[in-house]
Specification:
Layout: E1 2-4, H1 9-16, H2 38-50, E2 63-64, H3 66-76, H4 81-88, E3 92-101, H5 111-114, H6 118-121, E4 128-134, E5 137-145, H7 154-169, E6 173-175, E7 178-180, E8 187-188, H8 190-206, H9 219-226, E9 230-239, H10 244-253, H11 255-262, E10 268-275, E11 283-292
Parallel strand pairs: 1-9, 2-4, 8-10
Antiparallel strand pairs: 3-5, 4-5, 6-7, 9-11, 10-11
Helix pairs in contact: 3-4, 7-10
């Protein structure tokens, strides 16, 4: 029998876990609502429409999020960006902060006044904003939201993973120092999907990242326990990636995970993701390969 998990969980975490600009913990109680700032939003979107000299000439319009405006107010009160985001319950994929002093009103957010911060305001991955203005100071929080597939999209996401994996298996490739010939496509297997979903849910619920579950089980034990009579079994895991395409590319870029994808002794596959925004990495993925006796 063949049992394989790929490279160690610690290496996987370093290579595949998505990096956040701010590590978000469980949200604190909601803060006092902050009024919307339509004039400041229009001002910064005008900058994103016109550009600021060198660099990108246009960026998508931002939308204001009340949680980011509450975060901006907390920053004005002395909280660092990371703490302010956590306190409002907003989880970003990436975030940035701009502070402008010595001027008030929407003119605080013109390209000329922003100066070097204008390049930050133009980043195309920023999609949401929050504002707080007091006296002649303006605080702006910009973020890329941590958007993930909905649980109801599980089947579509799994189908996309399977399609990407089978496209990879259709071509010879090198995984680190190993060379693999093209191999036949994998078939979907519902019990393997259940096994993958169970481990992804456990990692998300308890905020850990490992092939070994909290009860000490590894994928061979979990597969046997679920009633999958295997002669070959293997597993890939990942955390933080927000799409099927990025998670599969991450696996292909990692020699151990790539070797699992290309292994000729696997005939079936199941994959799943589970989201818990309170967890360390937000979204957890598991992919289980198998061949039955």
């Amino acid at each position: 029998m063949n049992f394989r998990c790929g490279i160690s969980a610690s290496q996987t975490a370093r290579r595949l876990a998505f990096s956040l600009l701010a590590a978000i913990t469980s949200p604190l109680p909601a803060q006092t609502p902050v009024p919307g700032n339509p004039t400041l939003l229009r001002a910064i979107n005008a900058v994103r429409q016109q550009g600021c000299g060198s660099g990108p000439r246009q960026a998508p319009a931002l939308r204001e999020d009340p949680a980011l405006s509450r975060a901006a107010a907390l920053i004005a009160a002395g909280r660092p960006l990371q703490d302010a985001m956590a306190a409002t319950g907003y989880r970003p994929a990436r975030a940035a902060q701009i502070t402008v002093s010595g001027i008030t009103g929407p003119v605080a957010l013109t390209a000329r006044v922003l100066g070097k911060s204008c390049a930050t305001a133009m980043q195309p991955w920023l999609l949401e904003a929050g504002f707080y203005q007091r006296g002649q100071q303006t605080w702006v929080v910009l973020a890329e939201p941590f958007s993930t597939p909905a649980a109801s999209q599980g089947q579509q996401v799994e189908a996309r993973i399977l399609a990407l994996v089978n496209a990879a298996r259709a071509q010879a490739r090198r995984c680190g120092k190993e060379t693999f010939a093209a191999v036949p496509p994998l078939l979907p297997q519902s019990l393997l999907t259940e096994i993958a979903a169970g481990h992804a849910a456990d990692m998300a619920r308890h905020s850990y990242f490992s092939h070994t579950a909290r009860d000490g089980s590894t994928v061979d034990v979990r597969a046997t326990r679920a009633g999958y009579r295997w002669r070959s079994i293997g597993e890939n895991i990942a955390a933080g990636q927000r799409t099927a395409d990025t998670v599969v590319q991450g696996w292909l870029d990692s020699p151990g995970h790539c070797a699992n994808i290309m292994a000729p002794n696997y005939l079936e596959m199941g994959a799943a993701f589970v989201v818990d925004t309170r967890s360390t990495l937000g979204i957890y993925w598991a992919q289980v390969f198998g061949a039955r006796r």
